[in-house]
Design brief:
By secondary structure, the protein is α/β, with parallel strands linked by helices. It has a single domain, classed as 3-Layer(aba) Sandwich (Rossmann fold). Helices cover 31% and strands 34% of the residues. It has four helices and eight strands, in the order βαβαβββαβββα. The structure holds guanosine-5',3'-tetraphosphate (G4P) and magnesium ion. The site of magnesium ion (MG) has 5 residues, from loops.
Length: 177
């Protein structure tokens, strides 16, 4: 059975602060954030607070993907597709240093897909930040020349995030154990 772990909002807040510290130490001056929805929305907003201390207030853009069941020549598989992408309005966004944020680096499939698609859109100065990186063999691969920041390296466990909790008190009790 897969091991489970719970993190409270406070746990997440502190780890996000540590990510910001690592980004500060890298010296890379990010100019905008792209959150990968839905898991990346909340950490992206939290991270903006801490990055704001030394980078000013960054705009947050959003992209979202989902998996759909494909059935190709009798072989069912999991394909990933865009459900929301960038408007063409922020035309010079792809010339900026942009930090892509998600909550977890698991199989890395979503991450590879999003980063590769953004590179096709002309982004050439991307970094990625995740709250948790699961130490495991990854199906996806990070494109070259992408700065990578993770808050916490963990095992291949199932993470219960506070934003998924229906009973936050029970969730916090589990997080304290
Ligand atoms: P990766 O590239 O970031 O590794 O993502 P991957 O495609 O492997 O992730 C598939 C989905 O599974 C993602 O949700 C991811 O957030 C979710 N996921 C993976 N591990 C965990 C975990 O330990 N706990 C929780 N709660 N979720 C996990 P998604 O399809 O992007 O949905 P959304 O919830 O972000 O909208
Ligand atoms: Mg996600």
């Amino acid at each position: 059975m897969v091991q489970k772990v719970w993190y409270s909002y406070d746990d997440i807040h502190r780890v996000v602060q540590e990510i910001a510290e690592k980004i500060k130490q890298s010296g890379i001056q990010y100019e905008a954030i792209i959150a990968i929805g839905g898991g990346g929305f909340i950490p992206a907003r939290m991270l903006r607070t801490f990055l704001g201390e030394f980078l000013g207030t960054l705009s947050i853009y959003a992209v979202s993907t989902k998996y759909y069941d494909s059935d190709f020549q009798g072989k069912a598989g999991n394909e990933i597709q865009k459900i929301q992408w960038l408007d063409s309005t922020p035309t010079d966004l792809n010339s900026k240093k942009v930090l892509v944020v998600d909550e977890v680096d698991d199989s890395r499939v979503t991450m590879e897909f999003v980063l590769t698609e953004l590179q096709k859109d002309g982004f050439n100065d991307l970094g990625v930040a995740v709250i948790h990186n699961k130490r495991k063999p990854k199906k996806g691969k990070l494109p070259e020349n992408i700065a990578y920041f993770s808050g916490l390296e963990i095992g291949d466990w199932w993470i219960n995030y506070p934003w998924d909790a229906l009973d936050i008190d029970e969730h916090n009790q589990n997080a304290m154990k």
